[in-house]
Amino acid sequence: MTAASILACAACFSGDVQSPLVDGARSGAWILITITLGVQGAFAAFFIQLWRRARRARNEEIETEWSHLQRSSEHS
How many angstroms separate the CA atoms of 68 and 76, rounded? Predict the structure, then answer.
């Protein structure tokens, strides 16, 4: 018995690429990758949303301040 066969899992030890165990491992890996990318995408979308809201609030604040300045210059 070699060291590789002692340390190998059942899917790797059999060496059958068409084995249901290998198919299950591939499916599991793709599911984990998909979930990870989905969570990272949601995280990025959340911060993009916060950035857009902050920019919109800043622009509204500037518009409000500008309109107050225009009204005060008309009254002077």
Answer: 13
Specify the DSSP element, H or E, that contains 37.
helix 20-75
Are 19 and 11 in contact, with CB atoms under 8 Å apart?
Answer: yes
Overall pTM surpassing 0.70 (yes/no): no
**In the chain, what are the domain boundaries?**
3-75
Cα(20)–Cα(23) distance, rounded to whole angstroms?
Answer: 5
Give the up-direction half-sphere exposure of residue 27: CA atoms within 13 A in the CB hemisphere.
Answer: 6
pLDDT band for position 61 (cuts 50, 70, 90): confident
Percent helix, strand, coil in the chain, to 5, is 85, 0, 15
